[in-house]
Amino acid sequence: MKKGIALLLICLLMLTACSSNSNSNSGSKNTGNAAADTGTAGNPATTEPAQAKEITIWAWDPAFNIAALEVAKAEYAKTNPDVKINIVEYAQNDIIQKLNTGLNSGTTKGLPNIVLIEDYRSQSFLQSYKDSFYDLSSSIKGSDFADYKAGPTSLDGKQYGIPFDSGVTGLYVRTDYLEQAGYKLADLQDIDWNKYIEIGKAVKEKTGKALITLDPNDLGLIRMMIQSAGEWYLKEDGKTPNIAGNAPLKEAFEIYKGLTDSNVANVHADWSQFVAALNSGDVASVPTGNWITPSITAEASQSGKWAIAPLPKLTANESVHASNLGGSSWYVMNVDGKETAADFMAKTFGSNVEMYQKLLTDIGVIGTFKAAAGGEAYGQANEFFGGQKVVSDFAAWTEQIPSVNYGINTYAIEDILIVEMQNYLNGKDIDSVLSDAQAQAESQIK
Amino acid sequence: MAKSKRFFMYLFLSIAAIVSIFPFLWMVVSSTNKSVDVTRGRLLPGTHLLDNFQKLLDTTDLQLSLINSAKISITTTLLALLIASLAGYGFEVFRSRSKDIVFNILLLSMMIPFAALMIPLYRMFGKISNVFPWMGIDTMTSVILPTVTTAFLIFFFRQSTKMFPKELLEAGRMDGLSELGIFLRIYLPTMKTTYAAGAIITFMSSWNNYLWPLIVLQTPQTKTMPLLISTLGSGYAPDYGMIMIAIVIGTIPTALVFFVMQKQFVAGMIGSVK
Amino acid sequence: MKKTNSSVSIRTKSVLTGWSFVLLAVILIFVFYFYPMLQALILSFQTGTGSNLTFTGFDNYSRLLSDKTFITSVKNTFIYLLVQVPLMIVLALFISVLLNDSKLKFKGFFRTAIFLPCVTSLVAYSVVFKYLFAGNGLVNTMLLKLQLVSAPIEWITDPFWAKITIIIAITWRWTGYNMIFYLSALQNIDNSIYEAARIDGASASRQFFGITVPLLKPIILFTSITSTIGTLQLFDEVMNITKGGPGNATQTISQYIYNLSFKYSADFGYAATVSYSIVIMIALLSVIQFKVAGDKNG
Questions:
Q1: What number is the ipTM of this complex?
Q2: The whole model's pTM is what?
Q3: Which fold has domain B61-273?
């Protein structure tokens, strides 16, 4: 017993010893910061320039958007060596929670100068906390970026966001499985989703592999399909639910059921299982955003077996072979240092063509800045994908993505649709599925 | 008959132990594999332990987060045990009608989900920041203060005190000890196992606390372990091998506290045999 | 007369000493729980997205009653409550009594092993659970090999089995935790009571129901109340293992609060209303539990 207590005490002592050590460090840092903060809060007129020259940015993926920020930071430092840029990494969900709590509590303390927000969510932040974001109309031009990015990043004709990555989609396929089933990559260049299911049946018969893997809690596939036909869960005003009478949505539901009914779909429950399904060779294809590339190429033994075809299209509404899934943009917060932050963004992501080449070659970011969608880096062949010029294909598809208004309720409606999708798969009639979903969405969204 | 009963006892406990340990083992095994193998559910140890660890050290400030978490959890545990045991003892030993009412009111605080308190609490600390920056947003104090007193722990100490032999109190009073003296000299040593259980539980929940630190801590210098682990899992292509080693490291302190504290259970038992 | 006088002053003194023991805790709880709770109550009468809040009276509360998602969440939560809490408490009590046997070998090992799940990080254990219970996961593979089932069970994607998976997950994680409370209480019981019972020839089950359960009653009541509260606020397991799915077949009230606050366009007013519905339910259940336990000391 004595031993136990002694051991614990030693542990405690050791920990408090190292903690008191660093305590003094972080303590002084904290008070330093806090003193500066209260200084500016107390007397905004005397904001020293030194204070405004330090900006903080929140983003979430060290291999992707944070890496891009590091490149931008280095570029900006060439011309503005006096600006200090702090890049802070949080998980995407964590950023949403922090931003919501911070903005809602009415205290600007602790908010960053620049934050990365997913396009599906940006309007809900812009419309709920309009005054908390800084209008960038004078720093950048929305029309310099892919057209479909305009909806999420602007509000009332003002440009609030700097579009970042493209969520342009493609159909990643295993060419070896295709060939066993009697198809070639060339056969997939202009197909609709029914043809896709048909190919899937052949693949299943010949190879025993599933065509696709689906997560019952994520209707990303439906979102891709309807955007390719220029529709969304909401009408163009971004507020009225657009479910009953939405022809592309109805067709998308039918295709989803077709995939499960014809037994060509596997099921996964989260991201790691999704990636595992691709890496283990259990599925023959995956229609998704270009950001999946690093996860696929991580399995080096499959090099040369993959290719990327254009996304299949719907038969309704002049659907095209291009769509979007995910993707995000930068936003400048309306707090001290906003001018510096806007300047940083304008000089890097807003105009620097060369930087975009570097982002592509070093990190694999396919941007949405139109002027940068060319050049050597874009034309390079990718050996993993059998020598396909993957990036120039994606860049070409990016230009064709139909523009839709994601509105403020994408995820609320999707949760309603997820439930109704289960009902539909269990035999409920499609028209009552959609009209029930419409009714519930109307009552829930105000 | 006694023998077969013994056998089933061991069998049952062994199955329970294996089922309990398996995910933990899997976690340790996974920390030695590369990301692709982790997602496939590979059950054999691999050779990527050092790689994963190196990557973790390169991409995060592991040491800082460990120290931050340790400071917060140890302070919280010590303060929480003191405050809650004093109160639990007070409510039970000095029972009165009015104290019972207050106690029942305190219990109400367990009932509201933390998500509902978050915004008001954040506002409160935002205001505190302007007056006392050292206990405002982004400080250790702001993490500790709202979590250090829980009705749960007070309730636990009070329920345990119900089993505390009251004759010992009388004996203490006879010996002329002050009330605080009785608490420190008689109650505290007698209730060792209760304190040990309380310490394990408090340390564990403080170490793993996620939502409030996430909201109130702002800078990389104050990041705690759960925040660090949470950051690793996002992104388009998370490295699961690296995440697993981070999780293993993040679990060691709570497991360690349990190991050390469970000696108290053994000690308690020897005491009662004697 | 004199005597009563002095006894009054002794009583005042003892009252003061008593209050001084509990004072610090009371102040801290009022400041950090009840003040924000009051603010949340005010919030529950407001509506609007983000920071543009306006008062709407009882609108949020009447919205609750017609909100299908809310009603499903309440149903799910109660299914977990009724099945999982009794299961876990009986299991924890049983294990702790076995572990308290003075002749048991490897006691430390068993105790540590069974406690481990609740120190294991949530992220790790959700990944492990999803892997174990996947369509082609280890659990199905074993069941198929033992020929207990003819086709793989859809543990995570079928509405019924997903609930079972969640119940297994909570039980797995929290049984060891509750066991610690029982063990700590058992250790405080004087062994001589059992010895006396044994001399009187009482069987093991008789000892269990005649001595252990009555003596542990305060702690059993404690754990059943805290487990009830824990289950009514259940969030972590569901969020990490099934995300509430398939559809909203496993969604809980707390998860709905989270979705209203963070996943959808932030509606903190309505989220606070849903939170208060939990408060009301917990308060009612706690009263019932106290009554059932017949603990007049409360």
A1: 0.87
A2: 0.83
A3: MetI-like fold (1.10.3720)
